[in-house]
Design a protein that fits this description.
The chain has 211 residues and is mainly α. The chain has helices spanning 14-32, 39-46, 50-57, 60-73, 78-83, 97-108, 112-124, 133-147, 165-181, 190-201; strands at residues 95-96, 152-153. Helix 1 crosses helix 7 (112-124), helix 2 packs across helix 3 (50-57) and helix 6 runs antiparallel to helix 10.
């Protein structure tokens, strides 16, 4: 009898492969830390050869940068907020700054594993020899540069968005702290707790018409 034809091999797109690599490496780092992770371990989990995976990440540092830049920092950026169609994001006078941070915390809350990974890497990267030390050191400047590309609707008395860098940095620092707290006992709901933070960072009545 003639043998059955082999099923056609499905060639995955580079985007799918990168997503698989990020997911696998994130799980491994979350369990064992960056230093204990090996590229071979990630390749095995994805089902690729090591040379095949290196085509996408080049080296261990390149993999780490991919995780941070594509897996975390560029998730749910201001463009994603505007594209969500939220009324606060699509106001003709500009996007709502408090609304964007609510959007960000709500989406982060859906992926606690990635939050844990990012916080762990942030602590590890405080060491000068860590490959992501410079990236985390520059993160406030990079975030501000990204946010400056968006038209925000803010109270006129603030002097305009370009005057609000201290507030933006405090807000991001508060978000990082709250996300770390979410892994301790007793458990908290990030979205509910963030509402309390927002009331302090963006107080009434100043921000009431800009949420």
């Amino acid at each position: 009898m003639p043998s059955s034809p082999r099923p056609a091999r499905v060639r995955l797109t580079p985007e799918v492969r990168v997503s698989q690599i990020i997911a696998a490496a994130s799980r491994i780092i979350g369990q064992h830390g960056y230093n204990a992770m090996t590229l071979q371990e990630v390749a095995d989990e994805v089902g690729m050869s090591l040379p095949g995976m290196l085509h996408y990440v080049h080296n261990k540092e390149g993999l780490l940068r991919l995780i941070i830049e594509q897996g975390y920092d560029r998730r749910f950026d201001p463009e994603d907020y505007i594209a969500s169609g939220d009324p606060g994001a699509t106001h003709p006078d500009g996007a709502s700054l408090p609304g964007y941070f609510r959007f960000l915390i709500a989406n982060n809350a859906k992926d606690p594993h990635l939050i844990r990974l990012f916080m762990q890497l942030g602590v590890e990267a405080s060491a000068l020899e860590h490959p992501m030390h410079a990236y985390f050191s520059m993160r406030p400047d990079n975030a501000w540069g990204l946010y400056m590309q968006t038209k925000w609707r803010v109270p006129p008395s603030t002097g305009g968005f370009h005057q609000l860098r201290p507030l933006v940095e405090m807000t991001l620092a508060a978000m990082d702290g709250l996300q770390i707290r979410s892994f301790r006992e007793p458990p908290i709901d990030l979205v509910t707790e963030w509402a309390r933070f927002e009331a302090v960072l963006f107080p009434s009545p100043l921000w009431d018409d800009y949420r």
